[in-house]
């Protein structure tokens, strides 16, 4: 296997992570046929099957699972060694992979990511958004973005700003026609945009005042799982929406939406950039973290 280099090992780990030859081939920039041939070569050299595969599914064999568990840490060390060698120059370059949930990505895209790219044009940022909490090391990410309370304790966290808050909003015309809720239970008499969590469960709107939390299982004409879609529905006058304040800040300032129950939506934990400790980070990694620290300090000064 040494004659072919690391591509076979990368192929095995990619298929194990993605559970699909097609998805892994796309990640590696290979055709499905080429990837299948690579795996066939590895299995012949090892004398054991690594994957059980049918036309509809792919899964690791027991031998394959053991192989992946042993190879993955070694391959990470090799990648880190190669990244360290590449980072000896002073010019940030290469790819930074960042995992974030969608709301957090929207908040940091312009002030951090796009600003960073303008300053360092030789860097490519691969920003992946998803609702689930992932192990950024195991899944090949350099950095993660989550609220402070969701950052794993073994990670280094960089606050990206002041505490955030939720906002309950609707159009002025909706409130003129239906009245304004004064306390959270009033929402049960209103049309609300329901929220579906990544696991498929409905989200109960969370409120708190004077240390007393309240959860409301709202009713309404539509259930959505993406804030940008919910914003469209609210702006169209369908009902009341529940958002991170940053997602509707401009609409509130412009008068397109009005906020209610603000005394029931106190500040919550700030966003954080987080990453595992690194002895020899790349120039791009260092530059991004430094910019994130500056962004967080500037936001705290304005707060």
Automatic annotation (TrEMBL):
HTH lysR-type domain mapped to chain residues: 9-61
Keyword Transcription tagged: yes
InterPro entries according to UniProt: LysR-type_TF_proteobact-type (IPR058163), LysR_HTH_N (IPR000847), LysR_subst-bd (IPR005119), WH-like_DNA-bd_sf (IPR036388), WH_DNA-bd_sf (IPR036390)
Gene3D superfamilies found in the cross-reference section: 3.40.190.290, Winged helix-like DNA-binding domain superfamily/Winged helix DNA-binding domain
PROSITE patterns named among the record's database cross-references: HTH_LYSR
Keyword Coiled coil: no
Pfam families associated with the record: HTH_1, LysR_substrate
Keywords attached to this entry: DNA-binding, Transcription, Transcription regulation
Family (UniProt): Belongs to the LysR transcriptional regulatory family.
The protein's name in its UniProt record: LysR substrate-binding domain-containing protein
Lineage: Bacteria, Pseudomonadati, Pseudomonadota, Alphaproteobacteria, Geminicoccales
């Amino acid at each position: 296997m040494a004659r072919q280099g690391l591509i076979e090992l990368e192929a095995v780990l990619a298929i194990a992570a993605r559970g699909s030859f097609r998805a892994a081939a796309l990640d590696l920039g290979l055709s499905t046929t080429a990837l299948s041939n690579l795996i066939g070569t590895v299995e012949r050299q090892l004398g054991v099957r690594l994957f059980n595969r049918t036309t509809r599914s792919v899964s690791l064999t027991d031998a394959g699972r053991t192989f992946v568990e042993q190879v993955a840490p070694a391959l990470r060390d090799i990648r880190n060694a190669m990244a360290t060698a590449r980072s000896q120059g002073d010019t940030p370059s290469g790819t930074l992979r960042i995992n974030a949930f969608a709301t957090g990505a929207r908040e940091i895209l312009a002030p951090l990511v796009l600003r960073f790219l303008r300053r360092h044009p030789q860097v490519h940022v691969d920003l992946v958004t998803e609702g689930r909490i992932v192990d950024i090391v195991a899944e090949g990410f350099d950095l993660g973005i989550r609220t402070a309370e969701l950052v794993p304790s073994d990670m280094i966290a960089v606050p990206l700003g002041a505490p955030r808050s939720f906002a309950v909003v609707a159009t002025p015309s909706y409130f003129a026609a239906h009245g304004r809720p004064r306390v959270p239970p009033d929402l049960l008499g209103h049309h609300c945009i329901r929220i579906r969590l990544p696991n498929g469960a409905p989200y109960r709107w969370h409120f708190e005042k004077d240390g007393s939390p309240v959860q409301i299982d709202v009713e309404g004409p539509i259930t959505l799982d993406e804030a940008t879609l919910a914003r469209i529905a609210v702006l169209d006058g369908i009902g009341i929406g529940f958002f991170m304040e940053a997602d509707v800040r401009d609409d509130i300032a412009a008068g397109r939406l009005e906020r209610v129950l603000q005394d029931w939506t106190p500040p919550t934990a700030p966003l954080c950039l987080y990453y595992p400790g690194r002895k020899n980070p790349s120039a791009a990694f260092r530059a991004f973290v430094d910019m994130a620290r500056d962004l967080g300090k500037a936001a705290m000064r304005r707060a």
